[in-house]
Amino acid sequence: MNILEIEGLCKYFGGLSAAAGVDLHVAEGEIVGLIGPNGAGKTTVFNLVSGALVPDSGSIRFKGIAIEGRKPHEIRRRGIARTFQAVKVFSNMSTLDNVLLGHLFGGAEQQAMTDSARRETEEILEFVGLKGMKETRARDLILANQKRLEVARALAARPHLLLLDEVMAGLTPTEVASSMDLVKKIRETGVTVFMIEHVMKAIMSICDRIVVLHHGEKIAEGTAQEIVQNRTVIEVYLGE
Amino acid sequence: MKKGHRSSILIIVALLLLVLLPAYISSSSYTIILISNILMYVVMAESWVIFSGPTGYISLAPAAFFGVGVYSSAILGEVLPLPVVILVGGIASFILAYLVGSATLRLKGMYFTMFTFGLVELIRNLVHWWEVNVTGTVGRLIASEDPLVVFYAMVVIFLAVLAVSWLIGRSKFGLALRGIGESEEAAAHSGVNVDRVKAVSFGVSAFFMGLTGATMCWRWSYIDPTTAFNMQYSFMPVLMAIFGGMGHLYGPVIGATIFALLEELLTTKFPYYYMLIFGLTMIVVIRFMSSGLEGVIEKWRKVGKGGAEGVAHDAGKR
Asked: Would the CB atoms of B188 and A100 count as touching at under 8 Å?
């Protein structure tokens, strides 16, 4: 079953088309990669799905229900969580409070601030590998850990679909490897993953399917094998 | 948290002294009026911090909400009992702030500040227009109340604003407010209904300003739009909150108290240099004490405990 279905999605900024009739879908339990050159419209697609932007036309259906044009918090409560390309952690709050906020507000049902909410929050921190840093102020974490914190905040309140916007950008090779493990671990818990990434090694090895965007249009779609052999993709993105 | 409890106890002891004080010096109504005046500024500053502290939206609208309180009191004072009148002033301000907030809290930074500045002028002129064209009066006469009644009403409002600030700081709602201040976008994508949280907290903050206006109205015998919607009630709470610091409950309290006393002292002793000394003090505080007096106090506390690792990350929980 498709958890996310996008049809004819368009978004224009002035005369520039950031998304020009994008059709794509993500099936439940999949890890789908979204790649393409800079300015291809990848983040715009995420912004449209997560409610940060309202599409000019086209439809976005999550579990069969149209969600285009809804407010970000409504979309989050329905079960789509996201991270940001440039990290947006709550800098002066503790890592625990960062995730607690997501836990309390991000679910379909509103949670009260109880000890069990705190415990569940701590479990999520442990899951992403931030155990023992719950009292640390988010701004004092290194970039790799800030990115993990964003993932933890997104995972709080158990979303069904996780949108990861370049979680591996700017990380060292070791950090990329452990980040890849984390993404696989997230899928194992039953969360569907839709990710934008420039780190080819990562995208090729963990994604079930890859969608390639160029100038706001989908130019290819398929498994890693199919993508690396696709003539158009090689021309515009991967290079010879 | 333990630290918080100790300072709360200190505050409560100070409060008890405050309530008992007039009983000993009842001969001097000057002192009672002075303390009421200080309490007015304390409540204005403390309630300003409820919304503007965590979110960082600098509102210059306090005078609008204060004035709405004053006018509610002036209009209804003759017909309703005092506590009800005061409450109506607060509720009217809450509703105004909630509606205005829902419509304009999309504005960010300087734009929001400019809007709130304009709001005071708008309402002042509206009331003026209404008086001239509808009621055919300018201003209103008020039957003044005993200064002691005003004083006790202010003590109750002061306790209420402290309690509400404390509760918000420890609640889920407070967490959302701080999240909005850190990154509004991230808060929205984490499930926070940012428009509503902002509008409600703007309303709560205005509620106490309305209560204050409705209470302080009684020390005048005559009010007009220029007195009720004086921009002083917008600027002073902001300056006092910055001066005292916004990370803890006691910040605005000491900021407003010292500021109000300073104002009293300077206007009586140095009437010609009053504004000059005032301005210089402000510059020094903003330049050298970025977290206000509170920052200095917290630093001393840390040094006293042998650890000077800067301001605690839970600052803002208040």
From this structure: no
| Of residues A88, A100, A107, nearest to B183 (C-beta) | A88
CA atoms within 13 A on the CB side of A148: 26
Q: B312, exposed or middle or buried, with CB in 10 Å at 0-12, 13-18, 19+?
A: middle
B309 belongs to a structural domain: no
Chain A residues with CB-CB distance to B183 below 8 A: 88-91
Residue B104 maps to a domain = yes
CB A48 within 8 A of CB A11: yes
B18 belongs to a structural domain: yes
What is the value of pTM for the model shown?
0.89
Q: Do B189 and A71 touch (CB under 8 A)?
A: no
Q: In angstroms, rounded to a whole number, what is the distance separating the alpha carbons of residues B147 and B76?
A: 19
The pLDDT mean for chain B works out to 86
Percent of chain A with pLDDT strictly greater than 90:
82
Which two structure tokens, joined as six digits, stand for B122? 């708008």
Greatest Cα pair distance in chain A: 56
The nearest CA of chain A is from the CA of B184 a distance in Å of 9
- Please report the domains of chain A, with CATH numbers, ordered by start residue: 1-79+160-240 (3.40.50.300), 89-158 (no CATH)
CA distance A4 to A30: 11
pLDDT tens-digit readout, B163-176:
999 999 999 999 99
Whether the Cβ atoms of residue A32 and residue A207 lie closer than 8 Å to each other: yes
Q: Supply the range of the domain harboring residue B223.
A: 2-304
Residues A98-134 have pLDDT tens digits of 999 999 999 988 888 888 999 999 999 999 999 899 9
pLDDT at B317 over 80: no
Determine, yes or no, domain membership for B286: yes
Q: Give the gap in angstroms from C-alpha A214 to the nearest C-alpha of chain B.
A: 26
Q: Average the pLDDT over B276-294 and give the result.
A: 79
Put simply, whether B316 touches A (Cβ < 8 Å) is yes
- CB-nearest partner of B313 from A94, A102, A107: A94
User: Which residues fall within 8 angstroms of residue A28, CB to CB, at 6 or more apart?
Assistant: A1, A2, A3, A160, A192
**Sole residue written with tokens 């569907």:** A192
pLDDT band at A32 (very low <50, low <70, confident <90, very high): very high
The count of domains in chain B is 1
Closest CA to A237 of A177, A188, A205, A197: A197
- Burial of A28 per CB tally in 10 Å (0-12, 13-18, 19+): middle
CB atoms closer than 10 angstroms to residue B298:
21
Q: In what order do the strands lie in the sheet with A2-13?
A: A16-27, A2-13, A57-62, A65-66
Contact B259, B265 (CB under 8 A): no
Beta strand A80-82 pairing with A161-165: parallel
The answer for A 24-63 residues in CB contact with B (under 8 A) is 50-52
